[in-house]
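Re-running Ubiquitinconjugating enzyme subfamily protein to confirm reproducibility after the cluster update. Everything else is unchanged from the original entry.
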Amino acid sequence: MRDLHELQSEPCRTVCAAPLENNMLCWHGNLRPLSGPYAGAVLHIIMEFAEDYPASPPQVKLCQTIPHPNVFGDYICLDMLKSYTVSQRYAGWSSAYSVQSILLQLQGFLFAENIPQEHGGPIKAYSGDKVVSVARAWLDSFACAACGHTSAQPQPPLPEVDAFYCLLERRQSVICFHSKRTHEEDVLGVGISLEHFPGQARIKAINTSLDVLSLRAFTQDRVRLSVWKEPFRLFLPLVIGPDHFGRAREHILDTLSRIENEGGGFTGRLPQWTRDPIDQARMLLAVLPKLMNSFVVSLMNNNSNCSTARGFGPRTNNSQVLSERALEGYCSFHHMLLTFARENPEVERMANEAVDKFLASPAFRSKAHTPDLGEWLVNLTLSTAGWEGVAEQFLGELFVRNVRWILQDAPHLAHIHTGRGGGQSALMIDDSFTCTLVSRRLVMFQVYFLKNIGRPNNQSWRDSLTTYHRTMGRPTHSMKAHLHAASKAIMAVASWDEYFDRIWMPRMSGPQLTARLGSAIAESAARNYHRTPRSFGVPSALRTSSSTDTPRFLHQQAASDVSPGSSSTASSSSSPAGDRPLLAHRPGRRARDERDDDRHRPAKRHRRSDSRDRSRSRSRGRDRYHRDHRQGRHDPSYGLDRELGSRRRDDRSRERRRHH
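Result of re-run:
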């Protein structure tokens, strides 16, 4: 009956449906396109629902056949009407569909000019004049004996409205996608899933699809899949409004405490410790900033790599819709944070304390005290300090933390002296920006959200809360439009100057930037944020002394790698290791590491598995051996032949121990 009420209260002049008087599970409906070759014609359909609807899709039959690549008699081959893909994400039927959404999807699918196919690529619909004229004549001549439908008097009648608009999408954003209950009838929230760091209990990210779900659907109907079958195991209510927050408050705190404790499942019982204002504030500032930052990260990732899903066209998986989705998530949980801050002053006090400590001492900017800079930025939405007051310290810490990723992709930058020549400075500037482009895009998004969403025009957080109450915690249309434009601009940034402009920082000259990068490398090493690369595998003896028995080719290779203009005939005495680090290759290192790993493996293993491991190791060793020969870097004193011989001896020793 909810679906029928939706059709009657929110009519669309292109679709309609109603159940038969003697059978509530059999509905007759009409589709009327407003444009195209079939404009004005009426297509009559029959929908038969199962007892477990909306868990399973209805059977849809066409009363008139139209030329269409996915129509076979009265059968429609459409992904959304299939129930066998229940375990596949973004495919098949979803309980979020209602009768009206089914009708709208069918109308767009049956009368589209290009028809998307599951195997990829669209197919053009039949559009010949003769074919269309025959099909229209068939549609106009049809009469239904069960409901009395004719083309002149459609049954059920199509509504006449002044403007073609439908509030379906807006209503579905504030009602449960499964039970269709509103926030006045039940507590509404979203499903939450936790992502942990590999092999750790620590939470890496908190994910949600933002599909609105009711508490009853989560607890009684045991719904654990989102609209497009993304699994979740926790339920976090939303604020929406003051009345709804009063009913949802206990459930919000219960779920947040379980997220912080990395637990799962809803109990309906609030842990006693969360009643303490200080503990409650600490929990809120530990979980909600992580949620808010996760939407910024997802926005950056989606703009980097947008894809389409299977089924009827793209599943709202384009940059604009995904940007709006991330914006809605950020605003929803920012609304929650500000609501709790108004009732608990400790939230604001602790946020200001975190910002003050960050500014006062470099020790509080380290990873030990501030693990995630993006999450820390959320404190600024409650703090009296704005972005301009922390930007310099934030940027300095960001430079230090990015060193690890710079040297991972460009290890040669660790051995470039910033005071030598403009060529090396330019190399450092260009390579460092390229290696950290993803990180810097993320920072640009985070700063944009802070200055335009979290603290627009540096207004107080209480003013932002008042705005959220008026919009039920949802972003305005202007916010969505500005974010979409900003996303395109951020993804197009390709230089340091553009980067500094986007984060509202003064530009740096080449020497200033080189000096900043050089000091960041030194500071990162002092904090043990990274390990200095071994200069492409140069042994420590070659980096600390100039032994006369060192093979000549190693010094030649090192000199050519560090300084392309140096002579290729330089000897070991003319290139002392103390002057600059030597860059060379050390063959056999991987094989030795594998041999050491084998010594720590359990002696008792399956014979076939042990043989397979030896085969892989020998194959890798041979590949390395031949590659070194081709590149002219192989040296007999460090050759893999010795390593392979040692491995064979170790293998024979293991075999003897196993037999004994």
